[in-house]
Amino acid sequence: MAATQTKTYQNYIGGKWVDSVTGRTYQVHNPARTGQVVGEFQTSGAEDALQAVASAKGGLAVWANTPAPARAAIIYKAMEIMGRRAEELAETITIEEGKPIADARGEIKRAMNIMEYAAGEGRRMFGYTTPSELPNTVAYTVRRPLGVVGIITPWNFPMAIPAWKIAPALICGNALVFKPASATPLSAVKLAEIYEEAGLPAGVLNLVTGPGGQVGNALVESPDVKGISFTGSTEVGTELYAESAKRLKKVQAEMGGKNAVIVLSDADMDKALGGIVQGAFGSTGQRCTATSRVIVEEAVYDEFIAELVDRTSKLKVGDGIYPANDVAPLSSQNQKDKVLEYIGVGTEEGAHLAFGGRALSGGDFDQGYYVEPTIFTEVSTGMRIAKEEIFGPVLTVFKARDLKEAIEISNSVEFGLSSSVYTKDITKAYQYINTVETGMVHVNASTLGGEVHLPFGGLGASGVGAREQGTAAVDFFTEVITVYIDHAAEATERARFI
Ligand code: UN1
Question: From the CA of 255, how far away is ligand 1's center (Å)?
Fold first, then answer.
């Protein structure tokens, strides 16, 4: 094999690109072509994290005192740079994470949307004034930055999730230590480059790459870190929340999902099938809002399954860099193993494998982590495949007598992120909206995604702490300070116990 030049990327601390103090690096490979090295990255440890925290403390002194509209100008600039580099960034996402290029382009658009929205907050960032119960007294609230904040992000949205944490955190005046997933550091490096070019002062955004444990622990343990915004597994998020609580740190943890779609017998079948196939198999199911359960009303069950299998069989699986491919590889060997293990579990549990179920091999498939889109029918709520997050292209299908039973099935899991119902009956739609236990509820639309100016997050095992995005993000990334000013010329009689 011809020797190819592998580029080594560095951490970004205090406005400088630097090697890790561990002196170690690791390689990232393209999940569609594992022979292709994406780059060599720093294997950072606790010491790097602490240097980044110290740098962020310095950055905070400057940034917290920069007026919010001036912060906004830098975020707008970063958004413009991202727009200029959009195609290159989308390709980076596909090459390091594997998702289809159309999804990667959508991800860049989403990152730009949140930057636009967050920058707009620079001219709002509202507190409120209210009458005092005392004479000659003014009472109002202002927002202050939280301080140094840890940003810990997953591999499945290597650009959009960092963007939707970083932009709101920055507009609120915080300084950050950003620890991206070890599998997708290149998108993170490029995001840091973009903010550097946009003119963000040194120390405000610090990037530390490498495995999660040591860096994450250092951030949790450091008294200088006042908050952590995390997206990842429920297991890690729960631990991080507990450890942070002991130290009175503010945490927002966005975690797993087991999102269900209900299809009622009056639904527009074409619309429902489109949303479900996209929801289950788009981004290879590696998305916390992916559709992983479908609950179909008895009357249309057989017809629905036949159509679902037919549409799924037409999906084209292959390297996401080619626009013709609908379903791309899983992001790693681990992911592939986990998905195949769940497919085995489903079969053992007695579910019916209605489509797919195999790893794909031969030709280009041998170079990546490919698994067929898979559908299990005859699934019941006690099965592991009905309850646990698989995070891959596996859809489980349930039959329900009516809406009431369908909602019971939908609510039978620990997760509560996103959900959807397909129906034309407004009464049933509202019955569903009012009883389904998820943080995001859709009617006649897929479980996927969300708009950046609306809160994003879930209930139960799906999330804890303030919602992300929308004005909820400002609530998380600021402390509210309440101010009372007595402006009377002379001392006045004041109530004692208020
Ligand atoms: C989306 O599905 O559009 O990790 C965003 C995740 C979520 C973000 C999903 N936190 O998949």
Answer: 9
